[in-house]
Amino acid sequence: MNPSVTDARVEAGTTAPVPPRLNAGEIHVWKASLDATSSTDDLGSLSPDEVERAARYRFARDRGRFVAGRTLLRTIVAGYLGRRPADLVFEYDKHGKPRLIQRADETPLHFNVTHSDSIALYAVAKDGEVGIDMVRVREIPEWKSIAGGCFTAHECARLRRLSVERRQKEFFHAWTCQEAFLKASGQGLSGEKIGRDSVRDSGYSLHALDPAPGYMAALVSRHPVGRVVFMTWSVAPTSTPSATVEIQDVLL
Ligand SMILES: CC(C)(COP(=O)(O)OP(=O)(O)OC[C@H]1O[C@@H](n2cnc3c(N)ncnc32)[C@H](O)[C@@H]1OP(=O)(O)O)[C@@H](O)C(=O)NCCC(=O)NCCS
User: Fold this and answer.
1) Quick one: how far is CA 201 from the chain centroid?
2) DSSP H or E stretch at residue 218
3) Ligand 1 pocket, 112 CB below 6 A?
């Protein structure tokens, strides 16, 4: 598919911009910078519990990123449903996974979010639950004990055989896959070690993403995925809130 650009205006209180069509078998992944949105101080579309959560952040930068992250989540999800961001209502399962409460006449929409530093990724699908996880790649001196506690014996043995550079990448690949699986499946931390093979064997599909230099991400879906569309949400530098939605890359 050729890259294409859609311009979309986001005006406070209006219906969210219409995203590209989300077909069955597809997952849309949106990347956004939480420090670059113009909505950082605008609590307008947030629910009372989100406003309360925002107030609990000690540092202004973290509070701003949370507000921007939730505002964007609402704007992106609302776009698929033709609704206003402020009208969306989320509920949370016992492990804290947010889900959308939908009207009976709406096509079910599933989403999941991950953020690292100022980058956020939003996965949206029609077919079923999705989980997404992103990390900044860095040296972890205690990687052996973390791997021993979280990964299967097979994954650990594999990591020990690799060069330092490859090991670092494999470590974070295994980590993000496990987290994305837990986020997709709705399982909490049960102590069970989940390998990449067992994720695939249990019928979930698993995709590695390359979201930004120095970061790695994994996307897990309960349903087969034919295509992952990766898009960037960027805010135009004007005083009126607006966004340019650019389809950057298509994987698979
Ligand atoms: C809750 C958890 C899934 C969050 O993951 P994280 O890497 O800290 O944070 P991420 O940025 O990737 O994801 C956070 C977002 O995921 C969503 N989320 C929160 N709880 C979730 C859950 N149980 N399942 C799925 N999604 C969840 C929220 O949208 C949240 O965003 P918000 O903070 O703006 O509300 C994670 O901390 C956790 O408990 N993992 C359990 C497994 C574990 O610890 N594994 C380590 C390897 S052994």
Assistant:
1) 23
2) strand 215-221
3) yes
Q: Specify if 197 maps to a domain.
A: no
Number of structural domains in the chain: 1
Q: Which domain holds residue 19?
A: 1-128+223-242
- Of 7-16, 92-101, 158-167, 194-203, the poorest mean pLDDT is in 7-16
Q: What are the start-end ranges of the H helices in 57-214?
A: 60-81, 143-150, 153-160, 164-185, 196-201
Instruction: State the distance from the centre of ligand 1 to the C-alpha of 5, rounded, in angstroms.
Output: 31
Distance, CA 183 to ligand 1 centroid (Å)?
7
Residue 43 included in any domain: yes
Q: What is the pLDDT of residues 153-169, one digit of tens each?
A: 989 999 999 999 899 99
Distance, CA 24 to ligand 1 centroid (Å)?
26
Residue 252 domain-assigned (yes or no): no
1 within ligand 1 shell (Cβ under 6 A): no
Tokens 């209006």 correspond to 14
pLDDT digits (tens, 9 = 90+) for 21-79: 899 999 999 999 998 765 555 678 899 999 999 999 999 999 999 999 999 999 999 99
